[in-house]
Design a protein that fits this description.
Number of helices: 7
Radius of gyration: 18 Å
Order of helices and strands: EHEHHEHEHHEH
Strand order of the largest sheet: 2-3-1-4-5
Helix content: 25-40%
Strand content: 5-15%
Length: about 200
């Protein structure tokens, strides 16, 4: 039987649930410097989402490198390849009603914009913002210290650029707000877009 080799072009026929929120998939794309708090926020948001809607997957940049991008370097080309792989997996999950949370530095705007186009309307860019000094202070692995000493080449924020989003859907200031505050702001954004049930109120 003839078939299409481009599954991504198939129409999305999933029914949306009515009455305060839906099970539409989406991707929360967390970007920011190493140590800004992406993985911490991702884990906390995922826990809350699992309690409220189920169907949650976290795509951590380091884990994707280990399992899908093993052997890639930290050259710009290989960084872009890693982000494209994350975006592709996120797209597949999103179109099947999954809440996806990515936690990857993804330092270059052009590739994040490419990810937005790849994933479509379900893409939500969240800038996890903390100053370089704060990220260095938090760095228990000593990676920044090594990078500043020239022992780690192409380290984002030190010897390689990080291009912050110009118009993120949400900016978290993890240096100045608590984890609970950051999580509440993320969930508030999702409720505002009817991606989670409303909490009601007066």
């Amino acid at each position: 039987m003839p078939h299409s080799s481009h599954a991504s072009t198939l129409p999305d026929t999933r029914p949306a649930l009515s009455g305060g929120g839906s099970r539409r998939g989406f991707t929360l794309w967390l970007t920011g410097l190493s140590g800004a708090g992406k993985s911490t926020v991702a884990a906390a948001v995922a826990e809350r989402l699992r309690a409220e809607r189920g169907g949650v997957e976290v795509l951590d940049g380091d884990e994707v490198r280990e399992h899908l991008s093993k052997g890639l370097t930290f050259s710009r080309e290989d960084r872009d390849t890693n982000v494209r792989r994350i975006a592709y997996v996120a797209k597949l999950l999103t179109r099947n009603g999954v809440a996806v949370i990515t936690a990857a530095i993804s330092p270059y705007r052009v590739i994040r914009d490419e990810a937005r186009r790849e994933i479509g309307d379900g893409f939500i860019e969240v800038y996890v913002n903390a100053s370089l000094d704060e990220c260095i202070r938090r760095d228990v692995k000593g990676l920044y210290e090594q990078a500043l000493a020239g022992k780690i080449p192409s380290f984002t924020g030190v010897s390689d650029p990080y291009e912050p989003p110009l118009s993120p859907d949400l900016e978290l200031h993890t240096e100045h707000e608590s984890l609970d505050e950051s999580v509440d702001r993320v969930l508030g954004l999702l409720r505002g877009r009817d991606l989670l049930p409303s909490t009601g109120g007066a």
